[in-house]
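Quick one, T. Sequence first:
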Amino acid sequence: MAKRVAVLGGGVIGLSYAWELRRRGHEVLLFEAGECGGQASGAAAGMLAPFSENGDQPDDFFLLCLESLQLYPRWVEQVEAASGLSAAFVRSGSLYVAFHEADLLALETRMRWQNDFGAGARILTGAALREAEPALTGAAVAALYIPTEAHIYAPLYVRALEAACRREGVRIFDRQGNVELRSLDPVTVSAQAGAFEAEAAVICTGAWSGSWQEVLGLDVPVFPIRGQICAYAALPDRPVRHMVFGSQGYVVQKANGTVVCGASEDVVGFDTSVTERGIGRLERWYATLLPGRAGRPVHAWAGLRPATPDGWPLLGPLPGARHIVIAAGHYRNGILLSPATARAVADWLDDRAKDGASGVRAAGGGDGRGTGGGQAAGAPGARTWRPESFAPERFSGNRSVAWL
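Structure tokens:
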């Protein structure tokens, strides 16, 4: 049954949810205090790299991220068709670089379990590595090549999502200054544009999501972590062909040719200023990784990543009020997670996901926080990511949780 749904938050998460809900026939009102995508979403580097950013084990968070990567090609095709705009989705593949022979064992371990999940990974050394990425430093002894990973240009993606929402009929109230959730039943939202009632609500206000805990009656331990990023000028004769990851960060060449390097992180509240120390560390990493492209960055910026104490998002219906869904704390993965979590949130509000999620499957049991191995999607005895691993109430009443 179609509902009137209030979406609080106009970043990539809120826009994705609004668009998916509207496509399913719901009336959607989206409220944003500032400009859509004006915080972490527009500042993101846009990597879609669940393998490169998870070297440990195939836990539930990895499975959720992988499902989203697999949804992306069709999802972004639909966003672009609906908006008439490009989101600059590029399936570039990635390289995870090792600088010491001793690191080869770790790369081999990653390759084995990640290939069970369709990574298609292989280790490159010597001439094969130089041919794959000529700009890479000669100090790199090997790299794990993952052809299935991709990236998207976050500012264009946000713009395309917003345009798709507007064309689909989502009512967007942006630049509202102050948005308040006054009651849960009925859902009542107050903004500069007026007071509005709805039958359901989605809370997805990024690093500011903790401000809703009083009205929700639930601990929402989401706090900001500043991420600083810089960009280098395009050098057409020295392109960076892949996303390149290492222990100190990443580089990725975007659709306009600029090369983005990130990211330094620190806990400074809601301060989005750029620091010499933070960007200086990135400059040194960039010069080490791509010495033939050394120089000063042409642009630097910072965004606030919404983090939780365990690094996993709060995702699911409010206990005792399933018409209220919380989707907060996506941390470094908001861009990546937008398709899969949009589908999950819409399923919850459609009452279609009572017993779990559907999507990527992996072998084994366990508690979702780690498994001993994996199997390819659809293998016998496989399991899905478990929604309870992301339950928004998992910190409620836990006063030992330290807020940074």
